[in-house]
Amino acid sequence: MTWKLFSLLLEASLMTLLVSSISILVGLGIAIVLSGMRMSGNRALFAITGVFISFFRGVPLLVQLLLIYNLLPVLGLTLPSLATAIIGLSLCTAAYQAENLRGGFEGVPKGLVESAEMAGFSPVQTFIHIRTPIALRMTFPALVNEAILILKSSSLVSAIGLIELTKMAQNLAASTYMPLPIFASAGVIYLAINLVVAWLGRRAENALPGLPTK
Amino acid sequence: MTDHAIVATHVSKQFGDTVVLRDINMEVERGKVSCLIGPSGSGKSTLLRCIAFLEQATSGTILVEGQPLGFVGDGKDRRRQSPAELRKVRSKIGMVFQQFNLWPHMTALGNVSAALRRVRGMSRSEAEDRAMRQLDHVGLKERAGHYPSQLSGGQQQRVAIARALALDPTIMLFDEPTSALDPELTGEVLSVMRELAAEGMTMVVVTHEIGFAASVGHKVAFLDGGKLLFHDTPEAVFQKPREPRLEQFLDTYLDRGAAMLK
Known about the structure:
By secondary structure, chain A is mainly alpha-helical. Chain A has helices at 3-39, 43-58, 61-74, 81-107, 110-118, 123-138, 140-153, 165-176, 179-207. By secondary structure, chain B is of the alpha/beta class. Chain B contains nine helices and twelve strands.
């Protein structure tokens, strides 16, 4: 195991970080929109979110990625692997994050919504300025957890040709005939990244002001 | 235009089979303070929440500054107001809750300025200037940067009052504003409310503070079993030979007061 090989793995881990972080953020945005649709009181929107969440939670991510990878060209869209990977991971994590957020939204005390209503906020403004920030704070540990899961799940995008950490390790293992040190190194890099994410998450959690006390 | 800030006519409220309010008729004059007292479960909070349309009265009408709130028309023609109409009429009302209901993710200043920015469309600096003046008014300018969790209950309630006042309501509704507070913290909230009453704000206060009701209220309303038994001056309610239900209610308070003195 040379420094040269290790630095190739490190370089590839940047791609892992890129795909995962964008997917987490895009997924969070979709999850918030899904939550809003769910709470809108509109039955059709409620049903759509239900189907979306059931599908993306119920079908293996690898199958989802392969589906999207093969479906997009049929629809006349040829996207680079990176974009395809981000779409797949984002949709999948959005379903899980929407479920996480549900608990947070349900935990927002009714009184806080009433005080917003009395202050003249419209339901959409209340959702954006009151419900969502509080729900996000209440479910923040679950968000960090999901970020770690997605970082690890991003190894599956190697199946659609994106050269990230796992794919690079596979390639190097095949060309050097040294699978053990190479996969061990990849594992160490994943672990290191996730330890940092967990640490940052705890720090951010402590810095977030005020959860409802009731 | 009448002199009445609030007119409730034939207001009834049922939750399923339970009747909470029975045919309430009540008027609150502009610039006056009405205190709602009564045993718990008498419907006083529900009446206040119906006035604010946080609860929907099963029948009856509420007029706020001469305009219907929540429902328009009566009987068969009764229909819900559009959300925009509702917000317009409601903007005349400021509400203070038992549990303060401050938004925990915003500072005191953020709580007071949020609606000024989001609803009234003020710039951040304009809204914060105004919010700061309101916080000063309730004696909490120094706490502007604190989050609700960093404030005492009395301070939180004063921020909540400032938040409501910042929107320039003509009527303030208080739903048991001191019931969630430690006894030593009720004074600071009551004195802010006293000041507000002295400035001529129209107020409806659901309270267990009989002393406050007697000294600050222009009118005292006594509810029992969902019925409005009296709505009269404190002198008339407290001093004449009393109706047995009121007598019984007041006795429990006097007993409690006496117990505290022992």
